Amino acid sequence: MTEQARRLDAQMAFLTEACRLKTVTRATTLCDASRPENTAEHSWHLALYALVLAEHAPGGVDISRVIRMLLLHDLVEIDAGDTPIYAEADRAAIAVREQAAARRIFGLLPPDQARDLRALWDEFEAADSPDARFAKALDRFQPPNQNLASGGISWVNHGATLDMVESRVGRPIARGAPALWGWIAPRIRAWFATHKHR
User: Fold this and answer.
1) Based on the structure, what is the number of domains in the chain?
2) Could you give the CA distance from residue 69 to residue 73 in angstroms, rounded to a whole number?
3) At CA 19, angle to CA 16 and CA 20, rounded to 5?
4) Using CA atoms, how far apart are residues 85 and 69, in angstroms rounded to an integer?
5) 85 or 26: which leads in pLDDT
6) Cα separation values, 5 from 8, 9, 10, 11, 12, Å
7) Domain-located, residue 21
8) pLDDT tens for residues 61-107?
9) CA distance to 80, 145, 146, 166, 188, per residue, from 185 (Å)
10) What share of the chain in percent tops pLDDT 90?
11) Which structural domain, as residue segments, surrounds residue 141?
């Protein structure tokens, strides 16, 4: 077998495995509330968010790197599943499962690609670089927009409060994309003000 054939075998094994992300259901519904989105749809939508909202990124952010991070960021959910952001959960145990999933899934690739793509995933998780902070902000920005479009169905279903949304979603958005938080915060607050039972 040639080196090229071995490389293609490994790349196709990874891409075939990545297809399983389409079967992971998330808590957030589509904007029309017709059904929950799957994680592959979420990842694609976030990459589109990055492309369209690039002008609102803080200075120095490399949108091409952000898009790559967003396409990769939730691949670990193939093994670890999706944990809703408002769920009470053992976050340390989830992180251990996700690390194991990252080793397995990125390990399917040829070693150079495995190293490079895993490094992007690790960077996203750490959220210490401007690129990762903006990517993380978009990951938190998309769900409340879908909640607002759907009438807040996921917030209602998961008992989310304004404090929970501002803490779990607002802080990462404000840190990585202040302009986006400035735009959406009043809309979130207005929704909760008209749904006082939450």
Assistant:
1) 1
2) 6
3) 110
4) 19
5) 26
6) 5, 6, 9, 10, 10
7) yes
8) 999 999 999 999 999 999 999 988 887 778 889 999 999 999 999 99
9) 30, 11, 14, 8, 5
10) 90
11) 3-193
